[in-house]
Amino acid sequence: MANTIELAQTGKRDQLKALEKKYQARWQEERLFETNAPSQDELRGLSSEQIMLKYPKWFGNFPYPYMNGSLHLGHAFTISKIEFAAGYQRLLGKRVLFPHGLHATGMPIKTKSFAKWSSSVKTLSDTTTLSTDETPKATENGPTPTAQVGKATKGKLAAKSTGLTYQFQIMESIGVPRDQVKRFADPYYWLSYFPPICKADNNAMGNRVDWRRSFLTTDINPYYDSFVRWQMNKLHGLGKIKFGERYTIYSPKDGQPCMDHDRSDGEGVGPQEYVAIKMEVVEWSPAAKASIEGNVGGRTVYLVPATLRPETMYGQTNCFVGPSLKASPQSRGEIVQLLEIDGASIVGTKVNAPFGVIPEVYVLPMESVKATKGTGVVTSVPSDSPDDYMTTEDLRKKAEYYKVDPKWLDFEPVPVLKTVKYGEFTAVEVCKELKIQSSKDVKVLADAKEIAYKEGFYSGTMIIGDFKGESVQDAKPKVRAQLIEKGLAVPYAEPENLVVSRSADECVVALMDQWYMDYGEPVWRAQTEKLLARMNTWTLETRNLFESTLAWLNQWACARTYGLGSKMPWDPQFMVESLSDSTIYMAYYTVAHLLQGGNITGHTVGPLGVTAQQMTDEAWDYIFCNGPWPNPEPFPREKADAMKHEFDYFYPFEIRSSGKDLVQNNLTFLLYNHVAVFPEDKWPLSIRTNGHLMLNGQKMSKSKGNSLTLREGIEKFGADAMRLTLADAGDGVEDANFDEKTANANILRLHTLLGWCEDMLKDESKWRTGPRNYHDRVFEEEIVDHIDITKHHYETTSFKDALKYGFYEFQNIRDWYREVTADVGMHIDLVQYWIRTSALLMAPFAPHTAEHIWLAFLHEPESIQLARWPDPGRIPDRTLIETGAYMRSTLKMIRDAETTLLKKLSKGKKGKSDGPSFDPKLPKSVRVYVATRFPEWQETCVQAVREAYSETEDKVDDVKVRAILTERGLIKDKRAMPFVQAFKKRMQDFGAKVAFNRSLSFSEAHVLAEFLPYLKRSLGLVDAEVFLVDDALLKRDEPGFTPSIIETSEPGSPAFEYRNVL
């Protein structure tokens, strides 16, 4: 069942969509988003600082998406961060460059086109009338007539299940006509089909993209291919690309390394290196002997556990197998399975323990051994492994239950290393510390394992073996080398976790000769850390992600033998891997329009008349790296200068926005490559990241009916309503949420806004003119204040807050002004000011609606895309801002008090101190009591906090506060400590300086006098009176003046009481 909502009525939406198409056509016709650098004549003689002052620029970009389908709402979310920023920067008068590339390098397209096509096309030919209901359900990777259990059925692979059997059905589900489906067997057809859809969808969203600078990757585009080959040659010449044997994640099916973007599951997973210990079988258990001895041909048989802790092998006491797992003895060389046997049958087998103090040990059962990790055999060191220790203890307690001979457990833990905190038996002591009772305490044992392993590695000292007295850190690689040299162990590696390729192949680790980027090399890493230190990451979480990635990232395979892409220039049997050709392409945006002339494939020569063959490495070096101009020259130098001019003006980019998951690979590669290739003044200025986008609070999933493509979102809600909802979804690295109910509500909000603006401006004669009253002045200052607040949030890319204050709250202050001036009418100048400002503040988010207000209602001659930010040229009057907030909060308090009183009366409750009887059904009046000073006991509490506050530490000494209150006789006052806690919270929320300043910047009595007409009107009062507290207490004996109510008044928080007027 679909989890997305259905719209009941679409009339208002359709009106908005019609306006959107109208203005999109106008923007394209006027080519408003095509941005060029100032001419060379304009910049001649100016320094770089002078250029940026006179001709400010902004360059933002995001990861170019794969062209293997339509963009989905998650793409739109990441794009929106640059799109909103671009809209704002245009308002500041900057030359805004927002390009959009099209990625095709790597495996996804070729996998989709070839891996499934033979059977799918045949099915399409044979079943031209086949309906989805007539086909069996399956995953997107093909039919599944029988249930399969295994790693490859888990993770993303299963999550992406569409419920469709054949590839042609999947293609039809994303809008591909059936008569076009067969053509997708050619991987290059994808590159002609989806890019126009991508462009159309972006335009339908209203995105401010300069499409002249767009391009396709891979060698289909000779210009971009030339750029990538130059990049690879540059890095190779600098010694950043090397060749050698190394472990890599490998797809046996594809016959090549499987890098992050080649995976459907397991992105970020790397090889894990183990030592495989050769435990020779000394004597088989009776059950195993019967099955094995006649089938192995007299061969020596080893059980081969994999371990990350070779230094602990001295303490082996036994070996574990999973009793329910299958063991398969195999011969050397070509893998030939000799037989299969249950793990339970091997229990009781005696094996040799290399380096062990106990030379021969028994095989014991361990239910937690996984067939998917290591070899399915585990060696046991109870002195330093909590799992091993608790399992052997459980076996001793229930030997009969587990079917083990007690003599097999006739051992004690053997000490191997010593730590300061836990001594010689780390695992034993940690289990005691955490009060672990059984091997089934899985979660606590996981914590114990981490504690024991870290303590042993970082603070342990060896107490046995050839390296006795050395630290564990130093001894570990030496013991490993000894084991391998003596033929007692072999190196072994496997993926850290499950990795599944896009061809649905479960990956392994292979030791291969390959080209790799030497990430992690100390000098290169230090340069990259220098870049990161000065770069804006917008959030601390993003910076932490970069720092942690730099700490572990090392050599990265940058070549493959299969897929689309560019060939390695010096070794053309290999192609450049997709994450390695997408690290500095932002520089290519600055010159693409001059080379390709808007043709994304680069198959036509652009306006400069330079061919791809003329773009030599020396030419690229001259343009991007200030290299010497080659002699002989490949083309006239002035043409290279035109490209260099564009690059030097626009680079570096101001911001790149991306999903946070790319920090662990592509974004960190970007930093490494920039410091290697470009001079420092061209290093990136900032990178911001965002989380994934959920839909209606749930992860997007086609199979669950909870997904939207970008095009579907626009068709369903219209561009502006969708854009507002994307802005409202969230800004941090945590996952955001696109709420369709919010999108639907935004349709009404936009439609209502347009109707109100049109109504206000079509007959201006009905609105007030002349001098401005008190509420006019407050409203104007609130407009100025919201301009400043919204600008701040745009500057910090906090788009959710920019939307809150520049759109939602901005309409709230208008609504208040409209209500509070209902008796005299709104001032026409302020109505126009609000409408004009509203259009400008919302333009980055809802450009079509803003454009309609700008052109149709305000009758401006040029597009709002050319307008400027509504800078008021002054700061707002804080006093008037505070009076506006005061009026609203006072009205709310009085309304809430009446509601509370009505609830009490409805329940028949009325306290003795509630004052005279009041019937809300009779004519009523209210008295408002204004205090000019705080109660003495409160002042004493504030002074106590002040005396106990340390400005340097920004901290209050609570012990000192209590001592002062005790000294001044207030410690037993029940009001004191709750007030102190509330005051400390105010300090935390607003700062100590604001909290200690308890005076008001305005006269409450004066503000209330201005406010009383609206108060009476909105609350349906016969009368409303304002009294100072001192004056009101003098009337305590008169009816309607209740001392207990009057005395609750504080400055900024008046008291009030209702009374009936007869």
Hey, roughly how much beta strand do the residues contain? 5-15%
| 3D shape | globular
The poorly predicted ranges are 126-161
Strand order of the largest sheet: 10-9-15-16-12-17
The tally of helices reads 39
Largest sheet: 6 strands, mixed
Cα Rg: 37 Å
The count of DSSP E runs of length 2 or more, i.e. the number of strands, is 35
End-to-end distance: 62 Å
Q: Helical content, roughly? A: 40-55%
**Class per helix and strand makeup:** alpha+beta
What is the overall pLDDT average?
Answer: 88
Structural account:
- The structure is a single chain.
- This protein is α+β, with helices and mostly antiparallel strands and 1062 residues long.
- It has a 6-stranded mixed beta sheet with strand order 10-9-15-16-12-17. The chain has a 4-stranded parallel beta sheet with strand order 2-1-26-27, covered by helices on one side. It has a 4-stranded antiparallel beta sheet with strand order 6-5-22-23.
- Helix 24 (663-677) links the parallel strand 26 and strand 27.
- Mean pLDDT is 88; it is low at 126-161.
Write the topology of this structure.
Layout: H1 11-30, H2 40-43, H3 48-54, E1 57-61, H4 73-91, E2 95-97, H5 108-115, H6 117-126, E3 138-139, E4 142-143, H7 156-159, H8 167-173, H9 178-181, H10 187-205, H11 222-237, E5 241-251, E6 256-257, E7 263-265, E8 271-277, E9 279-283, H12 286-292, E10 302-303, E11 306-307, E12 318-321, E13 326-327, E14 341-342, H13 343-346, E15 350-352, E16 360-365, E17 377-380, H14 386-397, H15 399-402, E18 417-418, H16 426-433, H17 442-459, E19 461-462, H18 472-485, E20 489-495, E21 500-501, E22 508-517, H19 522-534, H20 540-552, E23 556-557, E24 559-560, E25 575-576, H21 586-596, H22 617-625, H23 637-650, E26 655-659, H24 663-677, E27 687-690, E28 693-695, E29 698-699, H25 710-717, H26 719-728, E30 736-738, H27 740-762, H28 774-795, H29 799-820, H30 828-842, H31 847-857, H32 878-906, E31 924-930, H33 936-948, E32 949-950, E33 955-956, H34 958-967, H35 976-990, H36 992-996, H37 1004-1019, E34 1023-1028, H38 1029-1033, H39 1043-1046, E35 1055-1060
Parallel strand pairs: 1-2, 1-26, 12-16, 26-27, 28-30, 31-34
Antiparallel strand pairs: 3-4, 5-6, 5-22, 7-21, 8-11, 8-20, 9-10, 9-15, 12-17, 13-14, 15-16, 18-19, 22-23, 24-25, 28-29, 31-35, 32-33
Helix pairs in contact: 1-27, 1-31, 14-16, 16-17, 19-20, 19-24, 20-24, 21-23, 22-23, 25-26, 26-27, 27-31, 28-29, 28-30, 28-32, 29-30, 30-31, 32-37, 33-34, 33-35
